[in-house]
């Protein structure tokens, strides 16, 4: 895309907005007003329904068959065929990023696959990466498939960088957004029999968008941290995070689906938007803040419940007002988390930093709710529910810290280490359960009858406590007491457990956690960018239930979901939008005022001062002011001194010629020695 095309695209965009403002009828549904597709078809550029540019004309496509836009299905299999043929060795990431491999493997693939008219190439490469990673169970092709997946990511990163370099400005941002967050159908132009087998069940009709996925989701699913950390991807993620790029997200399952209108990827202009624009509730920057407020309310209700649970409220016949409010609000919050899990699946949701904390709290709340209901129904003067709820305190307080500092590398490392720790602990408990059963049966054989065993022998809980103390190295009572079961075999089992559990397991655990932490710290920037992309992608919600804050989402589930069965899509959409705007009116007003104030102050020159600089106490404030934009006369003087294009190209050409001369001299010397029959000097040992 040239500069003239970019300027023409911007002019067409502004003309679209002006014409739409003239045609607006001012009804409640103003979705299309600020967020209509700004990518209007021009002579050179047009975006089709699949989110890519239209193919070349027939004659031009016939002359340049490699530049013609092929269907997504064909492109996926073309990439798979090329990568399998090019990679047949288990290369590592460092080997594939070496200059030699870059020149012999990566760059030829990029040159062959890059087509400025095809926006689906990055999606097709990431689809192949996901498939290569999932086919690792093939033992003979394990490491080779990993190498092929890495090649797909590197090629996709290079192609995305070319799109970024060839398309500057706002039109380029819109083009990159269509590459990463526009939906593509993997079965585009596939055989009809294969399309029927692709998905046997469609959860919701979305006007032809049921099968589509976006490239950013595949990048998160395959943990393509190199691509996500690239400049082009971060540009799109930042624009989506701030709400500059808006689109209709695609989800797997929606609890309250409202897909009457599908808005393509577009650039948002707040000055032309409605005051109560309900679609701003899914802007990641605002959505994360709203979810933080929701969780803060839950934490406050939890603290009030546990603080004022006096003796009169601990009985089964009475329940405090704070506990009632906490139960209702938490039920709505749990419904919101359940909708977030099923929207994109657990694989994507698990990439969230605090996903394991949410699951733990939901389990605690579920057990508390069941026990509390039983207490109220039976009416016995017992108190088991509130003590169970007390165990949620460390979960909730830790979770608020994760929310406040989502980009902290310590929390990112803690999330990865907790995953490894949980997996290894589960394996250890599964294996060491055999020691518990062995000691139990050994104890049973030490007594002549079951009655003697029940009266004098320790219970299974006591033996489990002994093993637990041995595991953590706290007490060796179990080693002494197991001699009562058998003089030799009892202590032998206990000592073997001590060696395996306290020594071997802890050594392996420390080694694995240290390795995980070192890997994350070595790629700290990529990890932070990846987590930010995850938060941005998950915050763009498709389900209408996210527009209702807890506990109003439960009311919407009870009334709006049955209402959808009796109304048409248009009528239900109108009612749903009206109710959402009424419930969120104060929040939408604050969002509109904030965005308009930010736009109005965009052209005002400001100097941002933080910390001590705000009071003029920083000794380095002058250094920051020096690097402001110099005046035009200084720029002209600098241009006369050093013309950048001429200077840089001259330096590069001089360096290349010097390198070529050195290479030619070295090759001449080698040929001279070979022709003389002499061998190069060898070291003397």
Automatic annotation (TrEMBL):
Residues 1-20, 674-685 have a biased composition (Basic and acidic residues). It comes from the Eukaryota. It holds the Pfam family LHD_TRPY1. The keyword 4Fe-4S does not apply. Residues 1-33, 660-685 are annotated as: Disordered. Residues 295-598 form the Calcium channel YVC1-like C-terminal transmembrane domain. Keywords: Membrane, Transmembrane, Transmembrane helix. The chain crosses the membrane at residues 289-309, 356-378, 384-402, 423-443, 492-513, 545-567, 573-594. Coiled coil: none annotated. Residues 21-32 have a biased composition (Acidic residues). Residues 75-262 form the YVC1 N-terminal linker helical domain. PANTHER family: NONSELECTIVE CATION CHANNEL PROTEIN (PTHR35859). This is Calcium channel YVC1. It comes from Cercophora newfieldiana.
């Amino acid at each position: 895309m040239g500069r003239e095309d970019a300027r023409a695209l911007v002019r067409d965009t502004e003309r679209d907005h002006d014409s739409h403002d003239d045609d607006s009828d001012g009804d409640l549904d103003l979705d299309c007003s600020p967020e209509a597709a700004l990518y209007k078809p021009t002579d050179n550029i047009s975006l089709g329904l699949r989110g890519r540019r239209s193919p070349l004309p027939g004659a031009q496509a016939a002359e340049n068959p490699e530049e013609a836009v092929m269907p997504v299905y064909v492109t996926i299999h073309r990439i798979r065929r090329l990568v399998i043929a090019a990679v047949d060795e288990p290369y590592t990431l460092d080997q594939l990023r070496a200059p030699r491999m870059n020149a012999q493997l990566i760059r030829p693939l990029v040159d062959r696959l890059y087509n400025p008219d095809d926006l689906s190439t990055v999606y097709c490469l990431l689809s192949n990466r996901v498939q290569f990673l999932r086919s690792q169970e093939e033992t003979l092709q394990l490491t080779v498939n990993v190498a092929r997946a890495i090649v797909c990511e590197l090629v996709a990163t290079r192609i995305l960088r070319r799109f970024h370099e060839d398309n500057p400005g706002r039109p380029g941002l819109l083009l990159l957004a269509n590459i990463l967050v526009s939906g593509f159908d993997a079965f585009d132009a596939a055989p009809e029999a294969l399309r029927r087998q692709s998905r046997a069940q469609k959860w919701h009709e979305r006007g032809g968008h049921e099968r589509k996925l976006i490239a950013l989701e595949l990048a998160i699913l395959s943990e393509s941290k190199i691509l996500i950390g690239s400049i082009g991807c971060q540009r799109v993620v930042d624009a989506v995070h701030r709400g500059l790029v808006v689109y209709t997200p695609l989800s797997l399952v929606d609890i309250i689906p409202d897909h009457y209108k599908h808005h393509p990827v577009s650039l948002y202009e707040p000055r032309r938007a409605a005051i109560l624009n309900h679609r701003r509730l899914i802007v990641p920057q605002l959505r994360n803040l709203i979810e933080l407020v929701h969780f803060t309310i839950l934490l406050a209700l939890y603290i009030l419940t546990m603080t004022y649970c006096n003796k009169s409220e601990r009985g089964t016949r009475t329940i405090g007002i704070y506990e009632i409010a906490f139960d209702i609000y938490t039920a709505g919050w749990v419904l919101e988390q359940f909708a977030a899990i099923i929207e994109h699946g657990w694989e994507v949701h698990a990439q969230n930093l605090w996903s394991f904390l949410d699951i733990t709290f939901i389990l605690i709340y579920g057990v508390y709710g069941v026990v509390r209901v039983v207490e109220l129904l039976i009416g016995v003067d017992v108190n088991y529910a509130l003590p169970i709820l007390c165990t949620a305190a460390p979960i909730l307080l830790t979770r608020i810290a994760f929310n406040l500092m989502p980009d902290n590398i310590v929390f990112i490392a803690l999330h990865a280490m907790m995953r490894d720790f949980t997996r290894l602990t589960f394996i250890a408990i599964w294996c060491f359960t055999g020691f518990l059963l062995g000691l139990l049966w050994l104890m049973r054989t030490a007594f002549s009858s079951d009655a003697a065993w029940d009266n004098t022998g320790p219970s299974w809980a006591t033996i489990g406590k002994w093993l637990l103390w041995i595991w953590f190295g706290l007490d060796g009572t179990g080693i002494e007491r197991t001699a009562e079961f058998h003089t030799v075999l009892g202590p032998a089992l206990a000592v073997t457990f001590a060696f395996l559990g306290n020594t071997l397991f802890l050594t392996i655990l420390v080694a694995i956690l240290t390795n995980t932490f070192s890997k994350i710290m070595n790629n700290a920037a990529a990890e932070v960018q990846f987590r930010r992309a995850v938060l941005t992608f998950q915050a763009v919600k498709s389900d209408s239930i996210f527009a209702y804050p807890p506990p109003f989402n439960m009311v919407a589930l009870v009334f709006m979901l049955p209402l959808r069965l009796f109304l048409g899509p248009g009528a239900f959409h109108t009612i749903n939008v009206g109710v959402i705007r009424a419930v969120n009116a104060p929040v939408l007003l604050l969002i509109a005022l904030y965005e308009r104030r930010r736009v109005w102050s965009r052209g005002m020159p400001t100097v941002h001062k933080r910390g001590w600089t705000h009071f003029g106490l920083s000794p380095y404030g002058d250094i920051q002011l020096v690097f402001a934009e110099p005046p035009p006369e200084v720029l002209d003087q600098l241009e006369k001194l050093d013309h950048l294009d001429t200077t840089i190209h001259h330096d590069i050409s001089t360096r290349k010629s010097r390198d070529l001369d050195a290479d030619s001299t070295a090759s001449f010397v080698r040929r001279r020695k070979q022709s003389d029959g002499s061998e190069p000097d060898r070291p003397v040992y």
